[in-house]
Amino acid sequence: MAGDYIVKDISLAGFGRKELDIAETEMPGLMALRKEYGEEKPLKGSRIVGSLHMTIQTAVLIETLVALGADVRWASCNIFSTQDHAAAVIAEAGIPVFAIKGQSLEEHWDYLDRSFQFPEGPNLILDDGGDATLYILLGARAEAGEDIISVPTSEEEEVIKAQIKKRMEQSPGWFTKMRDQIKGVSEETTTGVHRLYELVKQGQLPFPAINVNDSVTKSKFDNKYGCKESLVDGIRRATDTMMAGKVAVVCGYGDVGKGSAASLSGAGARVKVTEADPICALQAAMDGYEVVLLEEALDADIFITTTGNKDILRIEHMREMKDMAIVGNIGHFDNEIQVANLKNHKWTNIKDQVDMVEMPSGNRIILLSEGRLLNLGNATGHPSFVMSASFTNQVLAQIELWTRGDQYDNKVYILPKHLDEKVAALHLERVGAKLTKLTPEQAAYIGVKPEGPFKPEHYRY
Ligand code: NAI
Whose CA is nearest to atom 3 of ligand 1? Predict the structure, then answer.
């Protein structure tokens, strides 16, 4: 359909294409899949709804899915993460996309709805954070007359309820029909995966799911090395603050926390960590960071939440912070920081996605991306190379769901280790890494095959 898109400015497509050409040279995994599967087109017949940050790297993912035979419609999974030139280039390529940097919450859910509007309906979801899956499942529950609750944040709850009501009025029975024709979902991130496991526990997952996040070549790379590059990038683009010598507090020391602490310390900041899990707390201490209680560290200069949990930086914390403390979140949802409780304070907008909020004491904090993930809101997210590893897993997951989905139960699966190792192998040449070949004797001695898999399932990397 001509003009089946909503983007900020279609004339940005030329710039987008140039950046896409560069990104392709840094995304060897995706390009290898185009070569391997381009003729066979294993995704032929699939109609994929994508709900994932509409960046340049995602544009390479989308064009890979299309090269493998898929029909695709796309929305971003965050109101601030779209790169408008990336959305433009996808729209110009004739792929329906609905994403604008700085869209409202109402637009967010409306655009998500539009990404489902294939003439024959979609049959696969590629999700990041679970909003696309949530939309369909909540809608189907509403159609069954059940109460719909537990959406990401309370502000969002009203918006999503209104969107569901609108769709139910326009097309009665639509959500149930969608739910029944979806063959599966592949989920990108920790928070979305958490939601999927909860659904399984409640016996409410209606289709198979592939947990892409827990491929080793995703969470141990994107979440860690990705944030290592993109966290400081976001803080710098937002504030131009000198990082060296500052005291930064990183809340959470999981994969994202590890990358975030490394990002800040690499820039010369003195980093403190808060953790709830003794294993991660011990890791932080042994990596050389002071592990503290947040309440003891409120005189720091920079505060970053990375927990995927809620109410981490609360209003009482922000009131104690020093003048011009920088506050940001790199976890998936904005509820890590109690931004709603700042609404009745004096806000001064500095520039897009940067606000100064005045506390009753007169001290001000610099709040990044209104508490939404700042590496995508204030910068351009992770570099292409690491996203290539994540997205190669995504494409393999989509192929698996489309070609063999019938063989899966309505549970959450992780891609087999040989595919994880394949994703890594596809990225070695670009960084000039040479792989040692085990002799048959060596392989036998450590109990593996010379061609892998090289580790047992329980190995933790
Ligand atoms: P994770 O589960 O590995 O780490 C989270 C850590 O936070 C855990 O170690 C947990 O013990 C800790 N934690 C929980 N509550 C806490 C509290 N009250 N105080 C201190 N620590 C606490 O999860 P991962 O993979 O690091 O992801 C974290 C979040 O980042 C998720 O929302 C995920 O979806 C998101 N994410 C964001 C990315 C980005 O580019 N911005 C990239 C990848 C993931």
Answer: 254
